[in-house]
Amino acid sequence: MRHLPNFITSLNLASGFISIIFILNGDINTASWLILAAMIFDFLDGFAARALKAYSDIGKELDSLADVVSFGVAPGLIIYHLLHAALTHTVQSGFSTTWSASMMLLIVPSIMPVCAALRLAVFNTDTTQTTSSEVYQTPANALAVISIVLGGYYSGSDFLISFMSSPISLIILSLSLSVLMVTRIPLLSLKFRSLKIKGNEGRYILIVLCAAIISVFWYRKYSWIIPIYIIVSLFSLLF
Predict the structure, then answer these.
(1) What's phi and psi for 30, nearest 5 deg?
(2) What whole-number distance in Å separates Cα of residue 109 and Cα of residue 111?
(3) First and final CA of the chain: distance in angstroms?
(4) Among 40, 66, 147, 148, which is least packed by CB within 10 angstroms?
(5) 53: left (phi over 0), alpha (psi -120 to 50) or beta
(6) How many helices (H) and strands (E) does the chain have?
């Protein structure tokens, strides 16, 4: 039983790896669902470790390595896929050169996994980041990317479709999310230390708001989740 948390963490890593395979085959919708599955496993491994009191240095490092793949590399590849399609259109339309498009295509998506790795390295060495986080979390980064993909795919929103087709919008999104991961802005940690309401008020408020958005708007307003996460984090600082 003491190996159960590490097994669940391995499922997180496997989900991230399989999502990459789907991205390489052009299916970013299925890849997004697999990243979402990785988030669920990321939550369950910590929950299992606390329930079984099965903490270990190996588990901590394995969790970070899995998160780099699932919430850094995989979302970065989704940005690459979307940006490739958008830049190809601009080159064909004469709005950019092949050289400039190639440079942006290589540089912009690669920043995301680098910042994710830096963020996780900070978390592993900074003992103050337990119940609150001074940097934007890697699962939130991945959630921001896949919420746009799933929202655009299922809702058919003209805004989201236009957003995913705009190189400027994708570049701004990718760089903003990457910078947030390494910027010391006090944000609410998504990790539960216990299931008690006391000490987890902000997390439960976030869950209720996100559940309300999904139940009322379903896929159409997935992209609202990250702004709500930031607002709830700032609000929770008051307490």
Answers:
(1) -60, -40
(2) 5
(3) 37
(4) 40
(5) left
(6) 10, 2
What digits encode the pLDDT tens for the residues 10-58?
Answer: 999 999 999 999 999 999 999 999 999 999 998 888 888 877 877 787 8
1 or 119, which is more confident: 119
Find the helix packing angle between 57-68 and 4-24, rounded to 10°: 10
Give the total residue count for the chain.
239
What pTM does this model have? 0.79
Amino acid at 128: T
Whole-angstrom Cα distance, residue 5 to residue 54? 7
Dihedral sign, CA of 166, 85, 177, 199?
positive
- Predicted confidence (pLDDT) per residue in 169-193, tens digit: 999 999 988 998 888 766 666 665 6
List the structure tokens of 36. 């979402």
- Helices 74-93 and 167-182 pack at an angle, to 10 degrees, of 150
